[in-house]
Amino acid sequence: MAAAASRRVRITAGESRMVHSARSRNALTLFTTADDIQCHRARLVLAAKGVSYERVIVDPAKPPEDLADLNPYVSTPTLVDRDLTLFNTSVVCEYLDERYPHPPLMPIDPLSRARLRVAAVRIEKDWLPEVDVIRAGGRPAEPARKRLREHLLASVPLFKASKFFLNPEMSLADCLVAPVIWRLSWLGIELGREGKPIIDYGERLFNSQGFARSMTEEEKGMRPINEQA
C-alpha cells in the first residue's frame, strides 16, 4: 500500500502542536478520523483523563501504512500504547478508563456499570445508524432524521434523571452521548421545547475544557459560533 498523508498532532493538557515525523510515536497514539462520533468518543475519554497523546488524523479513503500495519481492519479509532494495539471503540475507552483511573469514568457498583454499558449498546444500535444514513444524504436522510429525533425525545427521562447520562458523575456513556448532541444542528435536527433537558445536558458538557480539547477543527465547525459554549 502506498504511504498516505495523515495529520499528526501532539495533544497535551494545555496545547497542541504538529508532529512532523511520519514514524515518530510517543507512548500513546490515537488514530482517528476528523469527524466520526466513535472517534470523538475516544478523544473525549482522553480529554476527560487529561492524558497527553499523539493524535493521527486519518483519511478513511487513504489510511496511512502505520495503521494498516497495526490494525488488520484498518479501522478507527485505533489506540497504540507502546507495544499494545487496541481497536473497537468500547475496548479502547474501557482500557483508557482502567489505564488512567483518575478521574474514574465508570461507577463502582456492578449494577450501575451494567446499566451504562447497556445504554451505550442501545445508542450504538439505535442512534448511530441513523446518523450514518443522514450523513449519506439522499431520500433516506429525512426519515432517518425523524427517527433519530424520536429516539432522542424518547430518552428525555434519562437526561432528566441525573446531572449526567444515567449517572451523577460524568461517565463513559457521556463520552458517547455528547458527540451525538454536539452534531444535532449539523445533522439538521431540532428538538424543540420537548428536548430542552437534552440541550441543557449538552451545554453542561460543552462548557468543559475537556470537551473543547477533544474536538478536531472539523468538529468545531459543526456549530455556528453563537451556538458554541
Structure characteristics:
6-stranded mixed sheet; 11 helices; 229 residues; alpha+beta; Glutathione S-transferase Yfyf (Class Pi), Chain A, domain 2; 2 domains; 11% strand; Glutaredoxin
Lay out the secondary structure.
Blueprint: E1 7-11, E2 16-18, E3 28-32, H1 37-49, E4 53-57, H2 65-70, E5 78-81, E6 84-87, H3 89-99, H4 110-126, H5 128-136, H6 141-154, H7 156-160, H8 172-182, H9 196-206, H10 209-214, H11 217-220
Parallel strand pairs: 3-4
Antiparallel strand pairs: 1-2, 1-4, 3-5, 5-6
Helix pairs in contact: 1-3, 1-8, 4-8, 5-6
The percent range for helix content is 40-55%
E-strand count: 6
- Mean pLDDT over the residues: 90
**Through-space gap between termini:** 42 Å
> Which percent range describes the beta-strand content?
5-15%
User: Uncertain spans, ≥5 residues at pLDDT below 50?
Assistant: 14-24
Total domain count: 2
Describe the structure.
With 229 residues, the protein is an alpha+beta fold. It has 2 domains: 7-99, 3-Layer(aba) Sandwich (Glutaredoxin); 110-227, Glutathione S-transferase Yfyf (Class Pi), Chain A, domain 2 (Up-down Bundle), CATH 1.20.1050.10. The chain contains 11 helices and 6 strands. It has a 6-stranded mixed β-sheet with strand order 2-1-4-3-5-6, covered by helices on one side. A hairpin with a 4-residue loop joins strand 1 and strand 2 (16-18). Helix 1 packs parallel to helix 3, helix 1 (37-49) crosses helix 8 and helix 5 (128-136) runs antiparallel to helix 6 (141-154). The longest helix is centred in the middle third of the chain and has 17 residues, at 110-126. It starts with 6 loop residues before the first strand and ends in a 9-residue tail after the last helix.
